[in-house]
Amino acid sequence: MPSDNPSTLTTRIAGLLDALADARNADDALREVDRCRRQIAGESIFSIQQNVTTAQDPADEIRLSRFYSSEAERYPVNGAKRKTLTPWTECLFVQGRVFVGEGADELARHFDDFELMHAHGLQSVVNVPLLQGNLCYATFNVFGTRARWQPQEVLGIRLLALAAARWVPVAPDLAPRFIGASLRNPVEA
Predict the structure, then answer these.
(1) Beta carbons within 8 Å of 136's beta carbon, 6+ residues apart
(2) Is pLDDT of 177 > 80?
């Protein structure tokens, strides 16, 4: 069960960072991240979606491929989906901001596979963009069975995403077509 104690969160994240220093490959590292995620977010499902959009894909679509899944039986690695430009894709892929969705209505509004999520008791999500410069090359996703997240859980998930980012490669043919649409260089602002 997740803890409300900020010092416990700090200890868990510090332990994860120490463990990641010894990881030999992405699978080992992401299993450590997953272990820590269970402690921070409790009953939840975790995945990383890699942005595999190419120049040949339609201009108004983003193509995603599952790079990691805590529930590979239900949500297999390499499972693919296409997303059109929506407020959700705008938030993550154009603005490079974290998306926090709470409650069944919010999930239904943003995810076309909501019925599958609902069947598994999922009611909330934290999506963290993994960025290289202004390019969102992947998303770090935690779907919870609770309707609302606690602030320390969101913070913990965001820190886990930062720790995981170095283990997620940028897809070789990624077409960075949304870079900078809303992200601004502070010097230009």
Answers:
(1) 51, 92, 93, 96, 129, 130, 178
(2) no
